[in-house]
UniProtKB/TrEMBL annotation:
<dbReference type="GO" id="GO:0043716">
    <property type="term" value="F:2-hydroxy-3-keto-5-methylthiopentenyl-1-phosphate phosphatase activity"/>
</dbReference>
<comment type="function">
    <text>Bifunctional enzyme that catalyzes the enolization of 2,3-diketo-5-methylthiopentyl-1-phosphate (DK-MTP-1-P) into the intermediate 2-hydroxy-3-keto-5-methylthiopentenyl-1-phosphate (HK-MTPenyl-1-P), which is then dephosphorylated to form the acireductone 1,2-dihydroxy-3-keto-5-methylthiopentene (DHK-MTPene).</text>
</comment>
<dbReference type="GO" id="GO:0043715">
    <property type="term" value="F:2,3-diketo-5-methylthiopentyl-1-phosphate enolase activity"/>
</dbReference>
<dbReference type="GO" id="GO:0043874">
    <property type="term" value="F:acireductone synthase activity"/>
</dbReference>
<dbReference type="InterPro" id="IPR036412">
    <property type="entry name" value="HAD-like_sf"/>
</dbReference>
<comment type="pathway">
    <text>Amino-acid biosynthesis; L-methionine biosynthesis via salvage pathway; L-methionine from S-methyl-5-thio-alpha-D-ribose 1-phosphate: step 4/6.</text>
</comment>
<comment type="similarity">
    <text>Belongs to the HAD-like hydrolase superfamily. MasA/MtnC family.</text>
</comment>
<dbReference type="InterPro" id="IPR023943">
    <property type="entry name" value="Enolase-ppase_E1"/>
</dbReference>
<dbReference type="InterPro" id="IPR023214">
    <property type="entry name" value="HAD_sf"/>
</dbReference>
<comment type="pathway">
    <text>Amino-acid biosynthesis; L-methionine biosynthesis via salvage pathway; L-methionine from S-methyl-5-thio-alpha-D-ribose 1-phosphate: step 3/6.</text>
</comment>
<keyword id="KW-0028">Amino-acid biosynthesis</keyword>
<keyword id="KW-0378">Hydrolase</keyword>
<keyword id="KW-0479">Metal-binding</keyword>
<protein>
    <recommendedName>
        <fullName>Enolase-phosphatase E1</fullName>
        <ecNumber>3.1.3.77</ecNumber>
    </recommendedName>
</protein>
<keyword id="KW-0460">Magnesium</keyword>
<dbReference type="GO" id="GO:0019509">
    <property type="term" value="P:L-methionine salvage from methylthioadenosine"/>
</dbReference>
<dbReference type="GO" id="GO:0000287">
    <property type="term" value="F:magnesium ion binding"/>
</dbReference>
């Protein structure tokens, strides 16, 4: 029986276009000045720049070089943990200033609340940092959804296409794999979760349905139908 829902964000609870056409461009526009102003005096930024330098091989004192690396990672949608941490800090400014609100599909908003009220425990697993996850749900256009979530996981538990990451999550949650349903729009993530014994549903929100043996859902109402049948 499913007792835990673990959900991806981009393409699952929220649109890919919001992430790629609003969040990423905002980060690209502001990250240079954010780092130039904070590199020396802000230990949280400095810590991430240490990691960018280590990962890229660019000299730690070459601030413009590090910014260039970060810009290229944004362009290439690289799921690098220090980039994701810095993006979370930047987006906090954007949300707080009202530059944008988090997108959440109406069906996701509806069923997250219903599942919470029904006693299911809800967790997020996204490549976006935990801070970014709390922001998109906390400042969503439909209100604050953070009270419905019991916890958040990001790439600090490992990459989303690696089965060990899901084993790490199971260990932290202290639950049996077959009690967890993972929702994602990316098949390689579903495959990795299944290798850890977790149940999955593939969110295919647009376009043709794939020819697959996997459990597929168009939206969270269809996921709910699956839950009720299990
Ligand atoms: C947490 S909102 C920003 C999402 C993000 O930065 C990202 O890379 C999307 O990753 P996901 O694992 O949610 O597909
Ligand atoms: Mg996704």
């Amino acid at each position: 029986m499913i007792r835990v829902i673990l959900t991806d964000i981009e393409g699952t609870t929220s649109s890919i276009s919001f992430v790629h056409e609003v969040l990423f461009p905002y980060a690209a526009e502001h990250i240079g000045d954010f780092i130039r102003e904070g590199a020396a005096g802000n230990p949280a930024i400095a810590e991430q720049l240490d990691a960018v330098a280590q990962r890229s091989g660019v000299d730690r004192d070459d601030i413009e070089g590090l910014i260039e690396v970060l810009q290229s990672w944004i362009r290439d949608d690289r799921k690098e943990t220090p980039l994701k941490a810095l993006q979370g800090m930047l987006w906090e400014q954007g949300y707080q200033q009202g530059a944008f609100h988090g997108h959440i599909y109406p069906d996701a908003a509806d069923y997250l609340q219903r599942w919470h009220d029904r006693g299911l425990r809800l967790f997020v697993y996204s490549s976006g940092s935990v801070k970014a996850q709390k922001l998109i749900f906390g400042f969503s256009e439909a209100g604050d959804f953070t009270p419905f979530f019991s916890g958040y996981f990001d790439t600090r538990v490992g990459g989303k296409k690696e089965s060990q990451s899901y084993r790490n999550i199971l260990e932290q949650l202290g639950v049996e794999p077959e009690t967890v349903l993972f929702l994602s729009d990316v098949e390689a993530e579903l495959q990795a979760a299944e290798e850890a014994g977790i149940r999955t549903a593939w969110l295919v929100r647009e376009g043709e349905l794939p020819d697959t043996d996997r459990v597929v859902a168009r939206n969270f109402a269809e996921v709910d139908d699956l839950l009720r049948k299990r």
